[in-house]
Amino acid sequence: MYTNTPDEHLLIGSPPGRPRLTILGGCSGHSFKFASVMGDVAAEVALTGGTERDISALALDRAALLSPLR
After folding, report:
1. 12 φ, ψ to 5°?
2. Disulfide engineering: 44 pairs with which of 2, 15, 51, 67, CB 3.0-4.6 Å?
3. What angle do CA 27, 39, 30 make, to 5 degrees?
4. Tell me, what's the pLDDT at 70?
5. DSSP states of 30-58 as a string?
6. Domain-by-domain residue ranges, the chain?
């Protein structure tokens, strides 16, 4: 089974109220080519609470605004 987010973008961030938890999601094989940068961003977010990279398009809270997976 192949899965993906409805907008086909990765997910990176911390859920509301859980700043010490960093979640990454790529869905199926879509993110393997981004694994190194995702790991780097995850380390920055986990250690400093943020990153200088613009990851707003990958924010976890945008997933709630998207239509359900089909």
Report:
1. -145, 130
2. 51
3. 25
4. 44
5. TTGGGHHHHHHHHHHHHHHS--SS--GGG
6. 11-65
CA 18 to chain centre: 15
Residue reference for tokens 């089974």? 1
Residue 55 has phi, psi (to 5 degrees) of -110, 20
5 Cβ contact partners less than 8 Å away, ≥ 6 residues apart: 11, 25, 27, 63, 66, 69
Q: pLDDT tens digits, residue range 17-70?
A: 887 888 888 766 667 788 888 889 888 888 888 889 998 888 887 756 565 544
Task: Let me know if 47 is exposed, middle or buried by CB neighbors in 10 A (0-12, 13-18, 19+).
Answer: exposed
Q: How far apart are CA 42 and CA 66, in angstroms?
A: 23
